[in-house]
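Page 42, continued from yesterday. The earlier attempt failed because a stray header line got pasted into the input along with the sequence. Redoing it now with the clean sequence only.
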Amino acid sequence: MLQVSSSAEFTSFDHVDLENETSVDTSSHMDCGKLRSCSLYCPEGTGEIKSSSQFLRPRSRSFYMFETDDCSEEDASAETLCLIQTNPGGADGEGRIRAKAKPAPRRITTSPSKRLSKVQADNRTSPKCVPMLTISEPDSWEISSCSGMKYGQYVDWEKTDPDSALRYQNILSSDHAELKEMGRSGFWAKPHTLRAKAYQHIIQCIGQHSSMADQKSYLDLTGQLFGEHRTTHPFPKFMEYGEIPQYCLNKSGLNSVKKILLCVNQHLPELTFCPILPALVSLLLHYSEDEAQCFHSISSLVSYTDPEKRYIDQTFLTTHASCMTFGDLANKYCRGIRKLIASSHQSLFEFYSDWIMWIFADLPFNYAIRVLDVYLIEGYKVLYRVALALLSLYKVSVSSRLARVDDFRQDMRRFVENISRHSSVDALLQRAFSIQLPTRQELTFLYKANMQALMQNGILNKSSYHSMEPGKFCSNVVSKTEMRVVWAWIPERFALFSPVCLFSTTKHGGSLAAFYPQVEGHEPTVLLLKTVDEEVCGAFLSSDWTLRRREGQKLQFFGTEECFVFTLRPSMERYQRTVLHISGISGTCETSQESSCLSPSYSSSCGMRRDICSSHLVFHPPTAKFMSGDDNMLFIGGDGGHALSLFSDLASGQSEWCGTFESPVLCRGQFRVQSLEVWGIQQFLSQQQIQP
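This time it went through. Structure tokens are written below.
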């Protein structure tokens, strides 16, 4: 062990030539008993070596010191690295000490507030109203050009953990179905290096279907954007609020995330709206060798070309179409939550617009990374599953404290942040994968139908979106609040449009002969009726009533599984089959041919747009009894009984338990009609123009 005397002779040296050898005679101290070891210190900016008699020696100080600050070289430790070597001098105990001191770096003494003032001063020359990123620090978009820390590159990790090496070989030899099962079970969750290698293998497979950027592209981009000094940039246009989930990253890691996001913004100009990208970069950076590899992974996901297995939405149009698709699924699998929000007069759009951020922003890291395991293999569909599982858990939680919830949107996000109080990560994933979702093809069809509806409504960016309000709504059957609830229940692509009254017994008279001419040529429609006992019920009917005549005068059923029935008074309930089959998807060639023959593109005299609604015109087998009618009777549902049946004068009817919708009796079995209305959807024409 190296021992250095703390005698006055040594400490009296004012200057030590660190480049030349210096001899120290220790013979005069042989009679001093046991010598005490001490550390050498180089005070900042002096180059002098002084002993522990003047400085408090820290315990267990390493001779090899490295800069421990996370952020940059400016805040690095100014202490000097000293390498001490001794050469025994023989029997007389004389030794030589050779010390080399690295010049201490100059400490930056500027306070954080002054640095912030300087950044703000520089921003005065930039265009006005340019948003800047803030990450709970006053450093905004200040980018350090230095790379993040690396470690472990000299170690063969497989030899330190043979079990992980075997697991990795299993991953390499597995097909897609086996990888899916591995991801769901957490096969590569530990250790860290196994998950990192699994991710790179999966992304390499994804890269075969995408036009990806290589690591050289990233180096070129960083050279163009950042140079060798700190720079300040507006946060990318695809980030909605400039927020970056930290996910346990240090300041160096957050700096790298910013750099990658800026490079993605420069490399992919078509990416205009993508709120989840910062979270994905932050998560993937944990398991990337460097920034360039993380950039390569993100570029592969963004540019993936398989139309039925997408990863990342790139515009507001596609992002909101996905949001609407999730809303349709939530309407099906989480019954009741839409009614709570709609009846509270809060915005369903704002609530559902956060759905993907529940996963890649609000979920804790250990939950989000398990979702990422499966997301990289299965794509977007797994996000629907996890969000539905979260929403179902939230529904249970919020139902017991409704009186204390003022803002469902913020309450949901707080719930997800504290999900560990309600479910473990394994239980959450088990709940998610127990949901029987439609096929990937069906989901793609619904997604495209929602996107087409947005385009038809002129909603291409966030500024052009407007939530549906009844406006000059007037009904003899329902109130404005009740109509808002009904509009929250119908498919998202139709809820974009305002309701328009097509038929009313008050205005058009009470008979089926007057009913059919007013409603034929329109789809979908909402039937509302109020009994003389003030009970209110109705049905959402997805198909055009014209189809009742497609085989002459024979009474037959038609419609799709998007049809549902509901009650509004005395209680609000909706009844629909649990398993969703997206309309417009046919399993056989015969069904597809039938659809093309039986669903011509009708054009109503009032100009209502049929092209956005044509996505549900595939007809189910005769066993699917949704709607039917002739000149004498009108039926809604027919499996085991009729949910609603009306006689030709529309003055009386009957309700029974119905297996079509799994619905109980909607009102008193035999009832008298006080008022009946049928509502359609309309975007441009006013109600006065619609009604003849």
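Notes: Confidence is low (pLDDT under 50) at residues 1-102, 107-139, 582-622, 684-692.
Reminder to self: strip header lines before submitting.
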